[in-house]
Amino acid sequence: MPGSKIDSIPLWPLLLYATVVVVLLAVILSLSYILGQHHRDRATGKPYEGGIEQTGSARIRFSVQFYLVAMLFVVFDVEAVFIMLWALGFTNWAGPDI
């Protein structure tokens, strides 16, 4: 709708901010690459460079019950958030007498 408040908001500050962020990101990443250490030691490619030699594979199998418990936890955790929000909204709608 012409003449509304949204049309009269200038967008140049947002574009300037986005440009400054992108330029700073490029400068920081390039300086990190140029000034950073470049070495390829024997232990650099290994995970957990803690001085402890690896004894086996890190790939272990988890049982299906582990994934089931994890999914149930996420579902009920999200459900609890929605129930709390619903209860807060209900008390605001019904008034403080409940």
- The helicity comes to 55-70%
Write down the overall mean pLDDT: 81
Annotation field: number of helices:
2
Say how many strands there are: 0
Describe the global form.
flat
Low-confidence stretches: none
Oligomeric organization of the protein chains: single chain
Q: First CA to last CA: what distance?
A: 43 Å
In terms of DSSP E residues, the strand content is under 5%
SS-based structural class?
mainly alpha
Cα-atom Rg, whole angstroms? 27 Å
Q: Mind describing the biggest β-sheet?
A: none
Following the backbone from N to C, one meets helices and strands in this order, namely HH
Question: How is this structure best described in words?
Answer:
The chain is mostly helical and 98 residues long. The chain has helices spanning 12-35, 64-94. The protein is flat, with a radius of gyration of 27 Å. It starts with 11 loop residues before the first helix and ends with a helix.
Task: Write a concise keyword list for the protein shown above.
98 residues, mainly alpha
Brief digest:
By secondary structure, the protein is mainly alpha-helical. The chain has two helices and no strands.
Secondary structure elements and their pairing?
Elements: H1 12-35, H2 64-94
